[in-house]
C-alpha cells in the first residue's frame, strides 16, 4: 500500500534537546511538506521541499531544520531554539493529475516537552 | 495577507444535511481544498475546487465562488462517523507550495 508514514507517534523532548521526526513516502511524490497544528488552530507551514536536495522555509521555520537527501524521506528536526515545540506535527505530500490536486497527510507525530 | 474564516462549531442531526461555509481573503488564489480531521488523527482529503461551481463526490459536495471569496462543503445523509473537524485551505497563486488553512469547523452529529 502506498502512503506516508511518520514516526514516532509520540515523542518527548527534554529542555535543550534536539529531536528528529521521521517522514517517509512511497507515493513517488516530488513535493513534501511539514506542518504544525496547535489545539483549535489550522495548520501552519514549517518547511517544504519541491525536489531532492532543495527545501524552503514556510511561515514558521524558526527553531526547525530539515533535509531532503532522498525523494522518499523528509525528516524534521526540532531544535532547542524552538521554545514552544509542543504540538501535533504533520507531514504531507502532493499529487497532481491534470487540474485535480490532492494532498496526502501522514498520521502525525505528537511532540511533548518534559 | 491571508485570512480564512470558518465557523468554529456546528451541530446537526443524523440523516440531515449540513453546510459548512468558508470565506477567504487572499492576495492570490489557486485552488481551495477541504479536509476532514477526526480528533487526534491526520486530515484526509475531501475535495479540491479551482473553478467556480459545484463538485460532487457521493455524500459530499463542495462549491466555490471565486468572485465572492466563498466556498462551502455540503454533507448529505449525515452519519455519526461524520463527527469531525472540517478544514478549509486556500492555495497561493504566487507560491504553489503555500496552503493557508482555516482553524477548522468542528461538526457534532447527534442521533
Q: What would you note in describing this structure?
A:
The complex is a heterodimer of chains A (114) and B (111). With 114 residues, chain A is mainly beta. Chain A contains no helices and 11 strands. Chain A starts with a strand and ends with a strand. The model of chain A has no long low-confidence stretch (mean pLDDT 91). Chain B has 111 residues and is mostly beta strands. Chain A binds chain B through residues 31, 33, 40-45, 48, 50, 56, 58-59, 90, 99-108, and chain B through 4, 31, 33, 35, 41-45, 48, 50-51, 87, 89, 91, 97-104.
Number of helices of chain B: 0
Query: Which class do the helix and strand fractions of chain B yield?
Result: mainly beta
Q: What integer value in Å does the Rg of chain A equal?
A: 14 Å
Order of helices and strands of chain A: EEEEEEEEEEE
**Tally of DSSP β-strands of chain B:** 11
Question: How much helical structure, as a percent, in the residues of chain A?
Answer: under 10%
Individual helix count of chain A: 0
Could you report the average pLDDT of chain A, rounded to the nearest whole number? 91
Total E-strand runs of chain A: 11
Which ranges of chain A are low-confidence, i.e. pLDDT below 50, for 5 or more consecutive residues?
Answer: none
* Largest sheet features of chain A: 7 strands, mixed
> Alpha-carbon distance between the termini of chain A?
35 Å
**Class based on secondary structure composition and strand pairing of chain A:** mainly beta
What is the typical, i.e. mean, pLDDT of chain B? 93
The string of secondary-structure elements of chain B, in order, is EEEEEEEEEEE
CA radius of gyration of chain B is 13 Å
Amino acid at each position: 500500500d502506498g502512503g506516508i508514514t511518520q514516526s514516532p507517534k509520540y515523542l518527548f523532548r527534554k529542555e535543550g534537546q534536539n529531536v528528529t521526526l521521521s517522514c517517509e513516502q512511497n507515493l513517488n511524490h516530488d513535493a513534501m511538506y511539514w506542518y504544525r497544528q496547535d489545539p483549535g488552530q489550522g495548520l501552519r507551514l514549517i518547511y517544504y521541499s519541491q525536489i531532492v536536495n532543495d527545501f524552503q522555509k514556510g511561515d514558521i521555520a524558526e527553531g526547525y531544520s530539515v533535509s531532503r537527501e532522498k525523494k522518499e524521506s523528509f525528516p524534521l528536526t526540532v531544535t532547542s531554539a524552538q521554545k514552544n515545540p509542543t504540538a501535533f506535527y504533520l507531514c504531507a505530500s502532493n499529487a497532481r493529475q491534470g487540474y485535480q490536486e490532492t494532498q496526502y497527510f501522514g498520521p502525525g507525530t505528537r511532540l511533548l516537552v518534559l | 495577507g491571508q485570512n480564512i474564516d470558518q465557523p468554529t462549531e456546528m451541530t446537526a442531526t443524523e440523516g440531515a444535511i449540513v453546510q459548512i461555509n468558508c470565506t477567504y481573503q487572499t492576495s492570490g488564489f489557486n485552488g481551495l481544498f477541504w479536509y476532514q480531521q477526526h480528533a487526534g488523527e491526520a486530515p484526509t482529503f475531501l475535495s479540491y475546487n479551482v473553478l467556480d461551481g459545484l463538485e460532487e463526490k457521493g455524500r459530499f459536495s463542495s462549491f466555490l465562488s471565486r468572485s465572492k471569496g466563498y466556498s462551502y462543503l455540503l454533507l448529505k445523509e449525515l452519519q455519526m462517523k461524520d463527527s469531525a473537524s472540517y478544514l478549509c485551505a486556500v492555495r497561493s497563486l504566487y507560491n504553489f507550495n503555500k496552503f493557508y488553512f482555516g482553524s477548522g469547523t468542528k461538526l457534532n452529529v447527534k442521533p
